[in-house]
Amino acid sequence: MKILIIGAGGREHAIAWKLAQSNRPVDIFLAPGNAGTASDYTNVPIDVMDFDRLLDFALTEAIELVIVGPEDPLCAGIVDLFQEAGIAVFGPDKISAQLEASKDLTKQFLNKYQIPTANSFTTADYAQAKAYINQADLPIVIKADGLCKGKGVVICHSLEAAETTLKDMLLDQSFGDSASQVVIEDYLDGYEQSLLCFVSNNQLVPMETAQDYKKAFDGDLGPNTGGVGVYSLPRTPETTDPALEAQIKAILGQIERGLIAEKFSFYGILFIGFMIQDGQAKVLEFNVRFGDPETEVLLPRLESDLLTVFEKTLAGTLKPTDLTWSKQAAVGVVLYSKGYPGAYDNHVAIESLPEGALIFHNGTTTDEAGQLITNGGRVLTPVALADDIQSARQAAYKLVDQIHGASLTYRTDIAKL
């Protein structure tokens, strides 16, 4: 089967790696891909937003299945385009993708269907926003309404910081049209948990959970990033809370009812970000695609044939029993460019990678001499699996120690439970 994966990051590398393990022969193309995918699959130099060229390539190459990785093309309606051309495509259509494209739309959905979430206020007016924060309890969370690659969320611990954030977003347009309006939320104090679900005709089939790390520095300090580390644990009596699981199961049922009531036609992935506070689960956000770096630890733990899972999802027949998971824990540590998520040096040499290791490339390319170099904020995610989380953590950091690059840095406390 000929498969086209659209995207260039660690998520897409992990999807390609897992699809290559299918029981059926597959020919995998990535557009545009990265240096890691170039070594095992076929990279195609087409930007993820160049819909015309992507479609022309798929038709010319007789692609049988398209998988869309990033949010930008999903929210811009790329799935609709491939569907109209009669090509099977994994991902939500443009209407369903608005659950990620607009945080305000998601808040309206959550409130309408009585799904637990933080209290919030949405406005495009700076004066209204400033008046709201002046009467709100601190800390407070300010979110750009649209897509900001995981960086449009600011936790403000002072009124001054909140006013500066509002000015940056609404007046100075630091995020462009993505912050034409803001969602101001109550701050929830707890721990985050990511749950990715396959969505098969509005029916949610949850994966096992993953815990990512958004803050750039050790101790959960520094600015928000797209995620700089992650782990996934097997479901055991020691790692599960029956009361919490029951809450989350009920929330999934409420989401399904909302999708059906709103007449969505959702096929693909729904990523649900939860905040667990005092044993109570509340929904922070929706994404409509595989998370990054969550994908890099979840797919290595998935024992089912991913190609079959994709096909059943699109056919509307996927069941929880179609997903089988490893009993091992997985840990991924993201090596990222110094300065990320702010300004950073790019195209800096990566001197060596350990052979035979499970390392997903997030942002790499090669120079004219064939030297591996950085090509983005997040660069590499070495992943290790082991029978317990501590062993997986030690193995992941052993891989980190073998990767050398002058511009690379990382957190030292990923999965330090």
Detailed description of the structure:
With 417 residues, the chain is of the alpha+beta class. It is built from 13 helices and 26 strands. Strands 12, 15, 18, 19, 21, 24 and 26 form a seven-stranded antiparallel sheet that branches. Strands 3-2-1-4-5 form a five-stranded parallel sheet, sandwiched between helices. Strands 6-9-7-8 form a four-stranded antiparallel sheet, sandwiched between helices. The longest helix is centred in the middle third of the chain and has 20 residues, at 242-261. It starts with a strand and ends in an 8-residue tail after the last strand.
Q: What is the CA-atom radius of gyration, in angstroms?
A: 21 Å
Instruction: Give the termini distance in whole angstroms.
Output: 42 Å
What's the β-strand tally?
26
Strand content: 25-35%
- Summed over residues and divided by their number, the pLDDT gives a mean of 95
Any idea what the shape is? globular
Specify the biggest β-sheet. 7 strands, antiparallel
Percent helix: 25-40%
Number of helices: 13
Query: Low-confidence parts lasting 5 or more residues at pLDDT below 50?
Result: none
Which secondary-structure class do the elements indicate? Answer: alpha+beta
Features:
417 residues; alpha+beta; ATP-binding; metal ion binding; ligase; PRibGlycinamide_synth_C-dom; ATP binding
